[in-house]
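Escalated from tier 1: zinc ion holo job.
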Amino acid sequence: MPKDILNGIVLRTTDYRESDRILNVLTKERGLVAVTARGCRKPNSKLAAFSAQFIYGEMEVTERAGKLQLSSAAVLESFYPIRESYEKLLSATRIAAASERVSEGAGAFDDLFLLLYHALSVIAYGDGVPKDTELCFIAKLLKLEGFAPALTYCLRCGRDLRGEKEVRFSNSLGGSVCERCGSAFVTVSTLSLEALRRMMLIDVQELRRVRLPDKVREELDRLIYNYAEYVFEFTMKR
Ligand SMILES: [Zn+2]
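Tier 2 regenerated the structure:
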């Protein structure tokens, strides 16, 4: 049986049979894979420590009829504090779910892996608001997947909107629209759009520096998810 070494982050787990678990793992080498961890729910299983959500580690897998089975694994990072706060857990669960959905298709996953790794680190060990990291993750994910919205000019007339206080935002047009061209669309403050612009540009190493004012966080929580659900075509907030 062919063996392989894969480095990955467990995005989701599903219990299976009496003591098995299926792990959906985002790997550096192959993108999203499903791996069966046989017997990992038995007491004393050597696979138990690795076979949980958000664990990052190195797996040795064997491949049989196209299916991957975990033969051994080493935990490199558990992001443990995520499990100690409901807010952290919620944000981490959302970004893991979004990562899984986005990586179901083909495409480069190096950048996604790096983004996910850094975002989980900041959620686990940072002292900021987990939601800020979560929103920054989704903003950067949009950019990564080619859906960066227009934020500084009107998509219909081309007018520069940076001097305005409030503008409109259209999911179907893909971003900002001036008051005159888009009165049917939702209103958004240019302050929030500027924060979104910066979040899309920030380096992954700098994620921990993201600090959103309360009003901006609330506004972007709605705006970013509405837009992301529209372009990705799946539900993200449930
Ligand atoms: Zn316009």
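The first strand starts at residue 3 and ends at 16.
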